[in-house]
Amino acid sequence: MHPAFLPYAKHLDPGCEKPPNGGYAPGIDAMVPCTVLLIILLYTFELHLNGSQPLIYTCDVTAPCGCSSKPVILSSSSRIIGGENSQIGSWGWIVSLQSDDEHFCGGSIISPSHILTAAHCINYFEALGTVTVHAGIHNKTAGGQIRTIAVVLIHPDYNHFSLENDIAILHLSVPLDMTDPLVTQ
């Protein structure tokens, strides 16, 4: 189940993620399969995203870094979902976030010890030990530098319903080797 749906599923039944008894969720109703619950959750989540109003970010004029001349306006359709293939070495600063050796989100290297990613990518992981950062790879499964996460900093005003302030910084347990040409290209 995608991490974005875990808060909903946990309220229904913690056993629904890996249902016993042939797919039925104990504690709710023995006649309601978890797959039906998941479909309802997915449909509700999709309605929520498609019906969302655009987010408008205005700059704090007192910020020491300055401001752009126009506010940033994001709609739910402006989010990247799925992505596309790239050439080897063309996006060296991009990392793959993986859980149980499966890619689930991306991030950007902002320093040897820090990765910038979306808060929705890591907000629902209760055990960060299962999440690894893969740098310097071209496909989603092979090689590169693999690091664990020591600390996660999620924007304090992150809203998991509207995805407002959907940003997080991951502090790696061991810094990346920035002399690796696959990471620095």
Automatic annotation (TrEMBL):
Q: What is this protein called?
A: Peptidase S1 domain-containing protein
Query: Per its record, what are the GO molecular function terms?
Result: serine-type endopeptidase activity
PANTHER family the UniProt entry points to: ACROSIN-RELATED, HYALIN
Highest taxon, organism lineage: Eukaryota
Keyword annotations: Disulfide bond
Q: List the Gene3D superfamilies hit by this protein, alphabetically.
A: Trypsin-like serine proteases
Q: Where is the Peptidase S1 domain?
A: 80-185
Which InterPro entries does this UniProt record tie to the protein?
Answer: Peptidase_S1_PA, Peptidase_S1_PA_chymotrypsin, Peptidase_S1A, Trypsin_dom, TRYPSIN_HIS
Q: Name one Pfam family in it.
A: Trypsin
SUPFAM superfamilies registered for this protein in UniProt: Trypsin-like serine proteases
The biological process GO terms on file are:
proteolysis
Which organism is this entry from?
Didymodactylos carnosus
